[in-house]
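Input chain follows. Return structure tokens only.
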Amino acid sequence: MRSISPRLAGPPLAALALALAAGAGLGGCHGEPPPVAPGEPIAAPAEVALGTMDTECDALIAAFGEYKQCPNLDDDDRGDIDGWVERARQDFAAGKKANPEPGAQHAIAAACHKAVVSVNAANQRCHAGPKPVQ
């Protein structure tokens, strides 16, 4: 009786298998380069001495006021800053009215401090020259 299984080892298939095996062997020689060794650990930033919630958030309003004086701002930018100041004042008033616990006051003071740093950086960029034309 004749076998019904297909012929797997005929000459064309054997040649193809041999070519694939040779190609796989050559590809192994040019693999990925070894991973780069890790660098030195980056130190955590130093702890910032924060003032009270009121002090830090008042400093944010003052930073906005200084930023608004930049000669390279246009009227739309100054209008945006006025909106940010008004929103900040409303939020700070609501925060004072809620009388948050000391941990929450510390978190709010830290957020205001970060915002002051950001606004001061924007102020420095503004004084460096006008905005690029897009």
